[in-house]
Amino acid sequence: MDGLSEIVPIKELPRENGKVALFTATGGTLLDGTAPARFEFSPVPVMTAEAVGAPALGLLRLNGEEIPPAQMGRFAGGRLAANFQIRDLDGPGAQASLDAAARDIHDRFAAGPDPTLPPGAPGLFTDPGGAATAVPGLAQRLTVNAAADPAAGGALWRVRDGLQASAPGPVGNADLLLGMHEALGALRPSSLAGMSPVPRSAATLAADLSSWAASGRIEAERVLGGATAQSATFEAMRQQDGVDSDREMETLLALERAYASNAKVLQAVDEMLQTMLRLT
């Protein structure tokens, strides 16, 4: 029963003839009669950034009926609902924030700072090979433009002289590099979920994103700490109201040792009395 409660918090109610009924903490019926509730789920072999949320990854089924994400609160408090919360809400939310940060970096290095690029051409970062799209997963797909990537047959000097430059320019020419530096420091409106649209530089955006992640972690640890303390309190109350088998066993062993000691004392007294009677 304890293992089941970790998955779905349950309430147990007595029924006639020693039977029990099981309900979720929010009142959903799990067992009240002879046929228990049947949970089903068909997992997908691979989860990608593009396939997020319930429609693409499937829904939990209860007795053959799909449970919409809005109704997963019926099983809140256990691992089952928590896993769906991560899959359908927390994970996609974090993905959207990372994608927004990646899009910001992509747009800062678009055609603006590089005079060799025609309008609409991909800049220093591509998705992949072209301009960024709105498809989820940009943070994972974003790559350096092949023209400036030696591993892809490009040349690093194009970062200095332009992605479509035909030949290396003067080594001391830092105009494009300074333009990229200015692009990083430029204030641009942010589209990160949960953050204000106040214009930010790239450094400020990265700091705010890191702070947002840290705040979420701290809040999760706070909730976990509260739940752990509550669980410990309930366990202490249960032990006070119920029977602690370990403590009862210790008491039983102590009584057994005391009985054995008293038996030896009585035996010694009996032997002394018998000896005195023989001497009189």
From TrEMBL:
Entry GO CC: bacterial-type flagellum hook
Q: Where is coiled-coil annotated?
A: none
GO: which molecular function terms? structural molecule activity
Keywords attached to this entry? Cell projection, Cilium, Flagellum
The biological process GO terms on file are: bacterial-type flagellum assembly
- Does the keyword field hold Magnesium? no
Domain named Flagellar basal-body/hook protein C-terminal: which ranges? Answer: 242-279
Annotated family? Belongs to the flagella basal body rod proteins family.
Q: Name the chain's protein.
A: Flagellar basal body rod FlgEFG protein C-terminal
Q: Which organism is it from?
A: Paracoccus chinensis
